[in-house]
Amino acid sequence: MPLRELVIGFDADDTLWHNESIFEKVHERYRALLAQYHDAATVDQTLFATEMRNLELYGYGVKGFTLSAIETAIQLTGGKIAADEIQRLIELGREMLAHPVELLEGAADTLARLAPHHRLILITKGDLRDQERKLAKSGLAPLFHDVEIVSEKDEGTYAAILRRQDVPASRFLMVGNSLKSDILPILALGGLGAFVPYHLTWAHERVEEMPVASGRFFRLKTLRDLPGVVAVLADSRNSGT
């Protein structure tokens, strides 16, 4: 497979820019708000359960999180939470939506190295307006051939993207920090996956075991390792190995 024929998909949140660290700081403030009612573990467990229950309706992102946080606060306080405290939760959501986009180390350089030789596609799930905002503020948008903002990242979603992009799975490399959303679905379709761990992982995205896919799955320390992996993939396919 010639080098130019490799198409590379990139996750956005916690792969190109920080996201979960922003949520974690808000979680700390949320626990403090409800500390007079329940311990931190109860708050975390109840909020997560609410988020999972609402996921099909609200989807991923700050807006759904904020609605679930308000619902959980009402539940855990037995309806005693004050209007000004609910207002604080709304303001926390607004702060998250307005938060500056902070790129991960090496993200811009890595994309700039790969873009002249490969078709790069951003594939991210979440709120359409918020993801568009973050991409615009990141300064990375000109490096992508296309952008796919989806409601879920599973085998069906990736299969549809590959059809739209007219690329076989064997020539598609997905790069991301979530084994569940970024790596396992594309490996199941016969594609390639490059896992770049982030120091925080939302419980919904955690997977206990590394996938086994010799020659198709790569675990990187940072995004700066990606061009080397791409070069190895190209050499192995061009040589027929």
Which helices and strands occur, and which strands form pairs?
Layout: E1 7-10, H1 20-33, H2 40-58, H3 62-76, H4 83-97, H5 107-114, E2 119-125, H6 128-138, E3 146-150, H7 155-165, E4 172-176, H8 179-188, E5 192-195, E6 217-219, H9 226-238
Parallel strand pairs: 1-2, 1-4, 2-3, 4-5, 5-6
Helix pairs in contact: 1-4, 2-3, 3-4, 7-8
Characterize the structure shown.
The chain is an alpha/beta fold. The chain has 2 domains: about 5-15 and about 100-240, 3-Layer(aba) Sandwich (Rossmann fold), CATH 3.40.50; about 20-95, Putative phosphatase, domain 2 (DNA polymerase, domain 1). Helices cover about 50% and strands about 10% of the residues. It is built from 9 helices and 6 strands. The chain has helices at about 20-35, 40-60, 60-75, 85-95, 105-115, 130-140, 155-165, 180-190, 225-240, and strands spanning about 5-10, 120-125, 145-150, 170-175, 190-195, 215-220. A 6-stranded parallel beta sheet has the order 3-2-1-4-5-6, sandwiched between helices. Helix 1 (about 20-35) packs antiparallel against helix 4 (about 85-95), helix 3 packs antiparallel against helix 4 (about 85-95) and helix 7 (about 155-165) packs across helix 8. It starts with 6 loop residues before the first strand and ends with a helix. About 30% of the residues are buried.
